[in-house]
Amino acid sequence: MENILKKLPQKPRANSLYKTLIYIVVISLVIWGFSGIQYNGIMQTARGEISDMLNGFLNLDTVYLTSFEADALVSLPYAIVETIAIAICGTFVSGILAIPFALMASQNIVGQKTANFGKFIITMIRTFPELILALVFIGVVGPGAPAGILALGVHSIGMLGKLYSEAIESMDIGVKEGVESCGGNSSEVLFRAVLPQVAPEFLSYTLFRFEINMRAATILGLVGAGGIGAPLIFAIVSRNWSRVWVIVLALIVTVTIIDLISSSIRKKLV
Amino acid sequence: MISKFEHNLPKKPNKTKFYSNVIIFALIIISSAWFAGFNIITLFQNFFRFGFRLIGQIFFPPDWGYFDNAIPPLLETIQMAIVGSFIGAIFAFPAAVLAANNFIHIKWLNKTVRVLLNITRTLPALVLASIFVGLFGSGSFPGVIALSIFSFGLISKMTYESIESIDFGQVEALMSVGGNKWNILRYSILPQVLPQFISYTLYAFEVNVRAAAVLGYVGAGGIGQKYKIFLQLRRFDNVGTIIIISFVAVLIIDTISSSIRRRLV
Predict the structure, then answer these.
(1) At the top level of CATH, which class does the domain B67-166+193-264 belong to?
(2) Chain A from 2 to 31: CB within 8 A of any B CB
């Protein structure tokens, strides 16, 4: 091996200055990053905390796991189902809302200039963190699951709109021209040429987003937007580890099952 | 116009399965909307009652005097994101190599590593952060650990998928001249997946910036702490300033990072 390496032709030396510059920039960014992290040492209570955590893990809160009341703080199954419901509704809302945004961002539908503008709007939506959106919507429609649904619904437009518009831009334009050539108007073009072609991809992206939203829905409750986040943060703050671990395990199981179902449907679609 | 052509078309295939699928999906969506209490009419009523006033308080006008005070926590947020994705990436590469089944042919090892990676990706960074806040006290350190674990899961998942889809001819070429595992890793796998690996790291960095912006909500440093304080004080004009500043910062970082990623891959 080593003597083969010696026989190889010399590597090109171009761009070495450019490369060093990149290395310097990256290294200094990382150093700057580390300089901002203050490490205060482990808390004095940490040892007790860890043993509490382990104890909690060994004595899981089965009462919470097995009660069936219509209150997320009392019943884990209710909280999980509510979280799933938020994720489903949020995904559905964004799946519908994203279509007009995607059409506005597709260069083969509305032309280059409008498409650039539409793409910019979609990027702006994507940038807005969903937790902040949830805070805003809680102010707007009051605390509870609907605020979480709206937050997910609006935030997901950012990703779905982008993926949808990429699907529209890469579709076969001949079908659209065929409908136009026999006198189809723009709504006929949309419903008979564009949407039927991209529907499988749209569905697949929407399901993918549902998997992401499922994870996002678990934290929305932290700010009061429904779902399992609220009981989780209460349990963490009050150091009720037996309940924290029950919730965390339930989350891992639920999210894994939903991932499996959703990805098997996606495989059939595309 | 188009309906004239319709009767000349061949008959459509039987669609019972399609319709039953549609009905199942519709039922799932409607029942979850009912379960979550998602009612469009009350939403609009509430919106007209409170919504306009709140949005007015937040954005018209935001408190620009607070601008200078918001910059240091914003920088801390970015530092946390950089360190988080850096540490995550360092640990992610070996994990990805262990999880890829075309390089290490030990099935149980691939499987265990993958299960571990899945678990790290299932736990939201915010939950990890609040657990670490309990251990290390509030500050940026617990946030960084949470972000590192989260980016570790994300980067290694995407990297092992890239490793599994590399051009295997290069590996065979190295084997045919007597290269050992280490040579294969160094001269065939690493060069092939490095651009993608860097691209995934940058992607994790983008996600981290967004995640770090809210980690402070549980006491893990960064600009999120300010959100919490001002929301509790009901100083919505300051909240507006913070939202706008972090929004602009995220937008700039996303644009730079995604333009680098486009050149890499």
Answers:
(1) mainly alpha
(2) 4, 29-30
A102 touches chain B (CB under 8 A): no
Residue A257 has pLDDT above 80, yes or no: yes
**What would the pLDDT profile of B197-237 be if each residue is shown by its tens digit?**
999 999 899 888 888 877 887 887 778 788 778 877 777 77
List pLDDT tens digits, range A6-33. 777 776 666 778 778 888 888 998 888 8
For residue B50, pLDDT over 70 is answered with: no
Q: Which of B48, B122, B259 to mutate to test the interface with A (most CBs of A within 10 A)?
A: B122
Q: What is the pLDDT of residue A156?
A: 92
Give the A window 26-65 contacts with B, CB below 8 Å. Answer: 29-30, 32-43, 46, 49-50
What is the arithmetic mean of pLDDT over A39-46?
70
| Angle at CA of residue A194, ends A188 and A196, nearest 5° | 95
Instruction: Give the domain ranges of chain A.
Output: 57-269
The DSSP-derived string for B75-139 is: HHHHHHHHHHHHHHHHHHHHHHHHH-TTT---HHHHHHHHHHHHHHHHS-HHHHHHHHHHHH-SS
Res A126 pLDDT > 90: no
Which of B75, B140, B231 faces A135 most closely, judged by CB atoms?
A: B231
Interface predicted TM-score (ipTM) of this complex, two decimals:
0.76
Q: Report CB contact under 8 Å: A88, B29.
A: yes
B135 with A248: Cβ contact below 8 A: no
What does the alpha-carbon distance between residue B84 and residue B78 come to, in Å, rounded to a whole number? 10
Amino acid at residue number A153: G
User: For A40, phi and psi rounded to 5 degrees?
Assistant: -95, 10
pLDDT exceeding 90 applies to what percent of chain A?
14
Write out the H or E segment, with its range, that includes residue B8.
Answer: none
Helix, coil or strand: residue A253: helix
Q: Do residues B192 and B170 touch, judged by C-beta distance below 8 A?
A: yes
Do A251 and B123 make contact, defined as CB atoms within 8 angstroms?
yes
**Cross-chain Cβ contact A239/B134 below 8 Å:** yes
- What residues of chain B lie within 8 A of the CB of A35, using their CB? 79
Q: Do B210 and A129 touch (CB under 8 A)?
A: yes
Inter-helix orientation angle B236-264/A130-141, to 10°: 150
- Residues in chain B within 8 Å Cβ distance of A260: none
Written out in words, the top-level CATH class of the domain with range A57-269 is mainly alpha
Of all helices (H) and strands (E), which one includes residue B24? helix B16-35
Grade residue B51 by pLDDT with cuts at 50, 70 and 90.
low
- Only one residue has tokens 């190295």, namely B174
Contact A42 B178 (CB under 8 A): no
Output the pTM of the full model.
0.80
